[in-house]
Write a structure and sequence with these properties.
Chain lengths: ~170, ~160
């Protein structure tokens, strides 16, 4: 009986050691496997999302036919209200113009820097609960699945509210 | 004799337990040291990266470059093209070079116009001699040309800031 008790205590000791070792391993694995972005990456992503969207909307569309070319925000508004408002390129309406320029600007900055991004424009028409996507598959690929930072702008149009959304994906 | 052997076994047992205990302590200390070292390296990297961000923020809010709107606050992420051209000329002056060196230290600051046509304005170029590492932070900006009455007043560009160590 005395020996059995001693053996039990030794087993308890062994179990404690095994538990401690397991906890230690888990602790190490947690630190080794974590892929969180650094402070710089998070800040850069946040700042890039807001500055890219802001700068893009303020930029004038290259339309030599007009003395005062519309901004890209104007083009997007026109796409919702009257797609032929600005006559810039023969055979292209303002929705096509805005898609092409957004794709060009985001691709020559975020795309060239190796960032994964996704831009979408959706119209929430008055009295309609379902938003309507202006660009079928968005711009830049698919929406981010994991870590991301995003920026949104809203434009008031006569047909409803146009929500512009740009997200920049993290590493994972 | 049996008692002596039993005592030796116990002693061995105690020694083995102490050995395992010290191995566990050493492993713990090693792991802690490893984490501490990597966190110090990470902090050093973060500080270096922060320097590039600091310079970018300084540049984008510099009255010598930022777009103004009368008495209203500065327009964010906007660089005045006319100020930019003027600043490039000012940079040739030694006095201004010293002033900006106090602000940016060893760095390169370039504004690149991407749309409608490509153009590049190098506003500050002071790389550190024998630098070993460079950190770059690009920020997207709008370039405003007040003097342009016809055509694109606002263009799309990028502010590139490189810092060295």
């Amino acid at each position: 009986m005395k020996f059995s008790k001693k053996a039990q205590m030794e087993i308890v000791g062994l179990v404690v050691i095994v538990i401690l070792l397991t906890l230690g391993m888990l602790f190490i694995a947690k630190f080794v496997m974590q892929t969180d972005s650094s402070g710089k990456e998070i800040f850069t992503r946040r700042f890039l999302a807001s500055s890219t969207l802001g700068a893009m909307l303020d930029t004038n569309y290259d339309c030599p036919a007009l003395d005062h070319p519309p901004t890209i925000a104007d083009l997007l508004e026109a796409c919702v209200e009257d797609p032929n408002r600005y006559d810039c390129e023969f055979g292209f309406n303002n929705c096509m113009n805005s898609y092409a320029v957004v794709e060009n600007l985001t691709n020559s900055t975020l795309g060239d820097w190796g960032k994964k991004y996704y831009f979408s424009a959706s119209l929430l028409a008055f009295g309609d609960a379902t938003p309507l996507d202006l660009f079928d598959d968005g711009v830049g690929g698919d929406p981010c699945l994991g870590e991301k930072d995003s920026e949104e702008r809203v434009l008031q149009t006569t047909n409803g509210i146009l929500k512009l959304h740009l997200e920049i994906c993290g590493k994972n | 004799m049996i008692e002596k052997k039993k005592g030796q076994v116990r002693m061995m047992e105690t020694l083995a337990i102490m050995f395992i205990f010290f191995i566990l302590v050493a492993m713990g200390m090693g792991t802690y040291y490893g984490f501490k070292k990597s966190s110090i390296i990470q902090e050093r990297e973060d500080l270096f990266a922060k320097k590039a961000i600091d310079v970018s923020i300084k540049v984008s809010f510099m009255p010598e470059l930022a777009c103004t709107r009368g008495e209203a606050e500065l327009k964010s992420n906007c660089i005045d093209v006319n100020k930019l051209i003027h600043l490039k000329d000012l940079m040739k002056d030694k006095e201004f070079q010293d002033y900006f060196f106090d602000l940016f230290s060893y760095a390169n600051v370039t504004v690149e116009q991407i749309y409608p046509e490509k153009k590049e304005y190098v506003i500050y170029e002071f790389p550190k001699p024998n630098w070993t590492e460079v950190s770059e932070t690009p920020f997207v900006v709008v370039l405003k040309d007040d003097k342009k009455t016809i055509g694109n007043e606002h263009r799309f560009g990028v502010l590139h800031v490189e810092v060295f160590r």
